[in-house]
Amino acid sequence: MGTVTSKDGTTIGFSRVGDGPSVVLVDAACCFRGSGPMPAVAEALTGYTAFTYDRRGRGESGDLPPYAISREVEDLAAVVEAAGGSTFVYGFSSGAVLALHAAAAGVPITALALLEPPLSFEEHSGPDVRDEINALVAAGRRGDAMIHFQVACGVPEEFTAGMRQSPGWPALEALAHTTVYDLTITATPPDLASIEVPTLVLDSRSSDERLRGWADGVAERLPNARRRTLDGEWHGIAPDVLAPVLTDHFSHSQA
């Protein structure tokens, strides 16, 4: 475990496991090293040095307002630098979109792998969920803000029904304000046509049509992308299924 300092002075906590070429793993919304899939993915990536980190405002990482996508890109760039200066990157959900923003900004990424990046290329209409979440957080209703985010993102009711009673709820509730960061990242598509690194875009066979369509849309707009569907659950793939596919992609990208 260690820390890096981002360009704006924010401390970013990270962990490292394994031995071999470096891979930086970028978490989805509501996840950090203490709660989420990335530590297990890191352990499953045999033959690689896997770096997991807490995105700003989460876990052991700091935060500094006002929020900007460029600051999260700088956070990721600082971790990439600590990982050797040019690395493979795997991103999940909003973390996949953040990885795309970083690649478009020129962060030295050798190859990308993305699981279900939630980028819609249709014009948004209706109220801004970010304003609604900010209002709930300001009113001290962090739990309601978190549930509102989950519902707005289309998370099935079977996942949200017992969320408040789960052991991890206090940690999840504490992250409510960071969901606005994720919504900001996914509301602003990066210049995909400028990203020339080899990119693997993945989805789960059990995910819904909307998630699959978003993955298709990203893959179609990237100049050097491959598209695969793997066996998994809704918006998730088990580490033992995912890791061999990632290692295959990264090893071929390195050749």
From TrEMBL:
InterPro entries: AB_hydrolase_1 (IPR000073), AB_hydrolase_fold (IPR029058). One of its GO terms (molecular function) is catalytic activity. Residues 42-235 form the AB hydrolase-1 domain. This is AB hydrolase-1 domain-containing protein. It comes from Saccharothrix ecbatanensis.
